[in-house]
Amino acid sequence: MKKNVLLILLMATIISACGEAGIQSDISQVVETDPVTVTLDVPAVAVGQLINETPPVTVETGEINITSDEFDEYMDELQRFTINKIWYKVEGFNAGNEADLDVTLNIISGGSSTELLETTIVDAHLQTDDVLLFDKAAPGDVNPAAVSVIESALLNGTSFKIELVLVGRNVTFQTTSDTFDFLFKFDVTARVQLD
């Protein structure tokens, strides 16, 4: 009989503890940003010629706020955001133009800039698919502090920007400039505490 009473008391304690703590749930989604437009220029005399390096170009995305209607309804219960993956995509490179791109990506939030990654996109003119930039399971050379800045901005309900500093390498253009777009995609998980 004592065993049954102890078991009943133990179960009651567990059930009441679950009621107070609530239930944790994860909500995941993939969010794509608006494109950011980049223009690389070459001198008219260099059209059709190989150029080792172009002057650097700096552009920024608009304000990125990954939270959506799905997250908004749980804003009071959000405990944390986790960035699982980040992809980029290059779109609209003119046919006949060729370039490698050295790219520095910085995260700008709250007036501060944190470097996310320096990378080289070989044959940027041929890149048409999503390219994995960051994977939480294997972060590679990505700066974890910059990923934390993104996660904090999301949790605080604020936005952030991505700054791109680009230098063209091994450039051969058939015109004096090329304008193309960068798009970013984020795989995000929000941890929600439901009472």
Structural description of this entry:
- By secondary structure, the chain is of the alpha+beta class.
- The chain has helices spanning about 1-20, 70, 145-155, and strands at about 25-30, 35-40, 50-55, 55-60, 80-90, 100-110, 110-120, 130-135, 160-170, 175-195.
- The chain has one domain: Jelly Rolls (Sandwich), CATH 2.60.120.
- The strands form two sheets. Strands 1, 2, 5, 8 and 10 form a five-stranded antiparallel beta sheet that branches. Strands 3, 4, 6, 7 and 9 form a five-stranded antiparallel beta sheet that branches.
- It is built from three helices and ten strands; from the N terminus they run αββββαββββαββ.
- Mean pLDDT is about 85; it is low at about 1-20.
Key features of this structure:
single chain, 195 residues, alpha+beta, Jelly Rolls, five-stranded antiparallel β-sheet, 10 strands, 48% strand, disordered N terminus, DUF4382 domain-containing protein, signal
Please name the CATH architecture. Answer: Sandwich
How many extended strands?
10
Mean pLDDT: 84
Which fold does the CATH topology refer to? Jelly Rolls
Distance between the termini: 35 Å
Largest sheet, strands/sense/barrel: 5 strands, antiparallel
Query: Which percent bin holds the helix content?
Result: 10-25%
Shape summary = elongated
Reading the helices and strands in chain order gives HEEEEHEEEEHEE
- The parts where pLDDT drops under 50 for at least 5 residues are 1-20
Sheet/helix structural class: alpha+beta
Number of helices: 3
**Assembly state here?**
single chain
CATH class: Mainly Beta
- What's the gyration radius in Å? 24 Å
Strand content range: over 45%
Number of domains: 1
